[in-house]
Amino acid sequence: MFKKKISNLNSILRFQLSTAITFDSFTTRILVKHGFDQEQCGKIVDSLNPLLRSDSHRIIAKSLEAWRTLILPRSKSDYKTIERCFLRTFSEIEPRLLLIEKEFLEDRIEKLQNLDLFRGKNDLWIALPNLEEIVSKRSDSQHPIMLNASVMENDYFQIKTRFIFAQRTGFRVNQSKDLNLNTMFLTTDRDFLNIYAKYCSMEEYRGLEKLNSMETGTEDDEIFEDLVKLSPKSNKIKAEKSEKNFVEKTIEEGILLNTSKRML
């Protein structure tokens, strides 16, 4: 009986080992097909091993196709430089991005584009955060989405709440330098408020977040107006055009909240 149990255990272990090797082999084959070298493949597989499932190689294949289609611009003259950075992102910075399912990636990019977080309908490379500054500091090119894995990990309502809050407390579409992905996704709520409304309490911000997540179909402008009063930017805006209140001016500039609704 004991020998039989040992034999069964050995069979199970051999199966698990062979399965793991097969998964690694499939994943490596897919990565090589997409331009990764053996060293990069090794780093990715080692990093993702605890997360891999039987169908992970299929997810990775579709995800890579989506990343390349949506993010990697083939029209750029420095395509090879950008591609090297693209590959290095997955091997050295954030391998988990490879496990984002194609449908989720497409949906998230569409929503961020509808939030006006990207410039240009046909080229997502034209993005909000000072890309020239990022490129000059890094000496290469990398899409902002790939610099911020939290763009995928964060709940969309949190992203939308921050964007709406930034709109209503001073951000303007034609002042893109005032809002960037680093501010939107990587800062804590308290740091975010310190940028856009220093005198807004966490309780007031949480109230806005709760209101937004309820998705009642209407926005409570009185709450937004109260929050705007807490923004140090609002006084300057009112002085420039005092005959219109801040919310009316924002709406007239084309930042309509129902645009956000249509994308959900």
Query: Which shape, going by the Cα principal axes?
Result: elongated
Q: How would you spell out the order of helices and strands?
A: HHHHHHHHHHHHHHHH
End-to-end span in angstroms? 60 Å
By secondary-structure content and strand pairing, the structural class works out as: mainly alpha
Estimate the strand proportion.
Answer: under 5%
* Main sheet summary: none
Overall number of structural domains: 2
Low-confidence runs? 1-21, 120-131, 216-220, 231-237, 239-247, 249-263
Round the Cα radius of gyration to an integer and report it. 23 Å
Report on the structure:
The chain is built from 16 helices and no strands. The protein is mostly helical. The protein folds into two domains: 2-151, no CATH class; 154-263, no CATH class. Helix 2 runs parallel beside helix 4 and helix 3 runs parallel beside helix 5 (102-114). The N and C termini lie far apart (60 Å).
Give descriptors for this structure.
264 residues, mainly alpha, 16 helices, 0% strand
Topology of helices and strands:
Blueprint: H1 2-33, H2 38-48, H3 56-70, H4 79-93, H5 102-114, H6 131-138, H7 144-147, H8 150-153, H9 156-168, H10 181-186, H11 189-196, H12 202-214, H13 221-229, H14 232-240, H15 246-252, H16 257-263
Helix pairs in contact: 1-2, 1-3, 2-4, 3-5, 9-12
